[in-house]
């Protein structure tokens, strides 16, 4: 998984959507962990796990921190960033650096095994779900026209896209289809009437010709 460029305290940030939020936050639970993380160790002064280009794992000093509160720690070096992944079916986590992995063993609750973990906000599950939900809201004009069976005007496209966001897409699509069907039926009825008028005119003309022949 690619790691986006690190952001540092004091950097001017552009306005971002939740899924682009590169700020570092504390996960609400272990199941939240995904993507880039920093693993802060229970040391004084504060350090975090890092891995160099040779795959060596070592403790690296934490420089980005507010008033020595480890909960505010952020990485200042890409070597301090690990990528967390949930191990399917095991309830366990794996942490990988760009040059290697990490495994931790120890009794739960021991101070020496406690870590403060920070992650990028955009990888929190609720942000990912929100992103997926917005992706489902998107539908192309071509898809809508195929569903209705004809070309749509701009107002119809806007109305259907708005309905997609509001969760009433299928109802609006059905309504648009019914209106299109009604328009087609009216056009067909008009055509049938015109055809009947033409047939009557032909019959009248032929009758006049026949009568003229026997006059």
SSE order in H/E notation?
A: EEEEEEEEEEHHHH
Classification by helices and strands: alpha+beta
Query: Could you tell me the radius of gyration in angstroms?
Result: 34 Å
Q: Into which percent range does the helicity of residues fall?
A: 25-40%
Give the amount of beta strand, in percent: 15-25%
Please give the alpha-carbon distance between the first and last residues.
96 Å
Can you offer a commentary on this structure?
The chain is 37% helix and 22% strand. With 215 residues, it is an alpha+beta fold. Strands 1, 2, 3, 4, 7, 8, 9 and 10 form an 8-stranded antiparallel β-sheet that branches. It has a two-stranded antiparallel ribbon with strand order 5-6. β2 and β3 form a beta hairpin. The radius of gyration is 34 Å and the shape is rod-shaped.
How are the SSEs placed, and which strands pair?
Elements: E1 24-25, E2 35-41, E3 47-51, E4 57-61, E5 64-66, E6 69-74, E7 82-87, E8 92-97, E9 100-102, E10 116-120, H1 125-137, H2 141-148, H3 154-166, H4 169-213
Antiparallel strand pairs: 1-10, 2-3, 2-7, 2-10, 3-4, 5-6, 7-8, 8-9
């Amino acid at each position: 998984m690619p790691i986006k460029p690190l952001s540092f305290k004091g950097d001017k940030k552009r306005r971002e959507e939740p899924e682009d939020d590169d700020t570092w936050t504390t996960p609400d639970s272990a199941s939240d962990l995904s993507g880039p993380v920093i693993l802060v160790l229970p040391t004084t002064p504060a350090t975090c796990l890092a891995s160099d280009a040779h795959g060596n794992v070592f403790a690296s000093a934490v420089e980005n921190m507010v008033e020595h509160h480890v909960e505010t720690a952020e990485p200042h070096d890409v070597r301090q960033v690990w990528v967390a992944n949930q191990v399917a079916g095991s309830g366990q986590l794996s942490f990988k650096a760009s040059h290697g992995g990490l495994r931790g063993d120890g009794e739960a609750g021991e101070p020496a095994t406690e870590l403060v973990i920070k992650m990028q906000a955009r990888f929190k599950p609720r942000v990912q779900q929100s992103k997926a939900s917005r992706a489902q809201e998107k539908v192309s004009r071509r898809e809508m026209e195929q569903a209705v069976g004809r070309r749509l005007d701009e107002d119809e496209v806007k109305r259907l896209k708005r309905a997609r966001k509001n969760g009433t897409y299928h109802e609006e699509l059905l309504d648009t289809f019914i209106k299109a069907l009604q328009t087609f039926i009216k056009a067909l009825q008009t055509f049938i009437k015109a055809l009947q008028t033409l047939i009557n005119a032909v019959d009248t003309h032929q009758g006049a010709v026949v009568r003229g022949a026997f006059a």
